[in-house]
Amino acid sequence: xxxxxxxxxxxxxxxxxxxxxxxxxxxxxxxxxxxxxxxxxxxxxxxxxxxxxxxxxxxxxxxxxxxxxxxxxxxxxxxxxxxxxxxxxxxxxxxxxxxxxxxxxxxxxxxxxxxxxxxxxxxxxx
Length: 126
Prior knowledge:
Strand content: over 45%
Largest sheet: 7 strands, mixed
Distance between the termini: 40 Å
Order of helices and strands: EEEEEEEEEEE
Number of strands: 11
Helix content: under 10%
Radius of gyration: 13 Å
């Protein structure tokens, strides 16, 4: 069992930056690939980024590549999402998730993640 708790969200002006954190409970954090997803009001949940168990491999939504960076610190059981040059369309609830699948081809698919955080609101004002 893995419990995930996101933090670091809030209100920011367009062009600003935020760093989200996701703290995982349990001693098996390093066994999971980690992902970030988001869901804007009235829209479907979408993949943002994912990172392999060791942090060696990362994957990004094409539209976000270059602005968002995912990283992890296995000693702290934490995965991060650094978001730069934020736009109003980045406004959403952001979720972190843990996947037992080491296959990066699965990482874009939310249904293949095993555990989810409760989500945290990011609001970008214009």
